[in-house]
Amino acid sequence: MATIISENTISEIKNTADIVDIVSEFVLLKKAGRNFVGLCPFHSEKTPSFTVSPEKQIFYCFGCGVGGNLFSFLMKHNGISFPEAVKMIAGRYGIEIPDQKLSPIQEKRMSERESLFDVNRKALDFFRNVLFNSSEGKRAMAYLEKRGLEEKTICRFNLGYAPSGWDTLVHFFLKKQVPPELIEKSGLIVSKKNKNGFYDRFRNRIIFPIFDVNMQVIGFGGRVLDDSLPKYLNSPETDVYNKSRSLYGLHLARQKCRETGSVFIAEGYLDLLSLHQHGIENSVATLGTALTADHIRLLKGYADRMILVYDSDQAGIRAARRCIDIFWKEHVNFRKEDVFRKENVDTRILVLTDGHDPDSYLLEFGAEAFFNAAKKAPGIISFLMESAIKKYGISVEGKIRIVSELKETLAAIDDGVARSLYIKELAELISIDESAVLEKVREVLVKKKNDIRRINRSNGFPCPNFKGPDNSNKCREKTISEIGSRLERQIISMMLQFPEILPEIDRRNLLDNFEDQLLKSIGQTLLTLKGNFQSRVLSTQPTARDCVHASEIMSRIDDKEIRGIIAALAITENFWDNEGCMKLIAQFEDSRNRSGSDLLRKIKAAEAANDHELLMRLLEEKQKLAVINKQQKLNQRGGK
């Protein structure tokens, strides 16, 4: 039965949890002054711009503008709802959520995600029970033992077995009164063509449960015991399972990845199990799909070096070429938010000898030999160079083909220094003039630049000279420095970080003089909420005050753009006291008085030019300014 989460419980969770602890589960953070910084998990970047404030309990990325508190971080990063984020943090800190039953209508609206997790957990228990406690399971266990898997590995990864019957799992859930339509949504059963009932998706297969980093079962993989096809079968995409964003074994690998700073990426379930069994626990596997940019962004939170493991040169070459698209190439899609999609990671390609996969290689040579091979694994570009030379040789015709094959790869490298070094390396490897390689690469660059300009024009992008996310010309949303004036931003920042000044801001009607409407609306929201925080401000330490104020305000605002602006203005490391605040207020009022003088000059100029329309607008503006100034003088005398 689902529950309602009370405001008191949410407040208890916020006061107990630490955003640095939560975020560091997904992002490598380093101390920087009073804050922590790391590479943003929400966009690609080389230089850390993602900032977490332990005092204010908020985060903000100065690169992409995403900001919020610990709940909004988990919601965005894990793609979950607010109640799910609250429950996740409550579970981590051992906070009990009181059992307040939902009404029948509320129960009906309950997110299916929680129900799907429950179905998957029940299915895992079913498959495990069949493996360990049935006659059919004995045959499956014998197969796993033959493959060299130990019982502790089987138990650690919660392996199971799907029996050969067509509807064994269907009947299992019927006895538990779980609606077949819900089980179908989990991907565990399939509707018959005549729509007259259902049958099990997984039959007579070893079952590999797939967990997310929060230890929730999100899907399953199944392997046959013989050579029948398809050898592997995976759960379809569901509301809780996305192949391009999920990695097998990450829930058990992430700590070791952090400790070593590296991760091995295999292609199969059994390969992954063998790696872990041989002590190589910083390893994960893709789930029947090629490595994606989402996978890389996920892994960047745990390791800064990635070694892709393949069983043949051809598989490695295909993977390396695909990886160029992920790690180096500039992507220009037809949605503005997809223009920048590059990942810059130290990535290596490890091809095991004699066609071995990780499973067979480890069984024959052991973990030490595997680590030694990994140390020699070349980077993506170097691997492709070596492969091309091995394929074509270094005859005159071979050299021509090598350059022709690698010119696109070299042109895809956005870093000018790196590109230049790789061009020099290739020229030396095949003994030709460096300028000859450079000329071919430039041909590709010119064509690519023209293609990007054409696509930008056709899609209405504002910058014709696309250079990528870490160069000067960018197609992006406004940064915080482009919103309003410097003084207006400072005042909102002051209001967030020193809420004791809110009554003075209110008394002087300071926000009425704001020109930027977005900042003005944020300031008005802070004034509206000031009563909720002032009593706590008087009875807490400064760090606790900041935490309550900035983080809690963001909890009350739905608009993610506004949350981002608040985070950016609250996370700055300014020291505010009453004297400094009054100086800033006086500076702002003086600037507005100067604006009044400027307005008079504009009115005289409009009169001289006989511009009646402009004159009327300026006179209206002058009248509004006079009303505001009169009200402010009354307020300063205490006569509202």
Instruction: Report mean pLDDT, rounded to a whole number.
Output: 81
Count of folded domains:
4
- Name the poorly predicted regions: 329-342, 460-477, 533-548
- Sheet-strand content, in percent, reads 5-15%
Approximate helicity band: 40-55%
Tell me what the CATH architecture of the largest domain is: 3-Layer(aba) Sandwich
Shape: globular
How do the strands line up in the largest sheet?
1-2-3-4-5
**Sheet with the most strands?**
5 strands, antiparallel
DSSP, total strands: 15
- Number of helices in the DSSP assignment: 27
Rg over CA atoms: 30 Å
| Backbone structural class | alpha+beta
How is the CATH topology of the largest domain named? Dna Topoisomerase Vi A Subunit, Chain: A, domain 2
The top-level CATH class of the largest domain is Alpha Beta
Describe, in plain words, how this protein is organized in 3D.
The protein is an alpha+beta fold. The protein has four domains: 7-104, Zinc finger, CHC2-typedomain (DNA Primase, Chain A), CATH 3.90.580; 112-241, DNA primase, catalytic core, N-terminal domain (DNA primase DNAg catalytic core, N-terminal domain, Alpha-Beta Complex); 252-454, Dna Topoisomerase Vi A Subunit, Chain: A, domain 2 (3-Layer(aba) Sandwich); 480-636. The chain has 27 helices and 15 strands. The chain has a five-stranded antiparallel β-sheet. A four-stranded antiparallel β-sheet has the order 6-9-10-11. β14 (305-310), α14 (313-327) and β15 (346-351) form a beta-alpha-beta unit. α19 (416-429) packs antiparallel against α20. The model is unreliable at 329-342, 460-477 and 533-548 (pLDDT under 50).
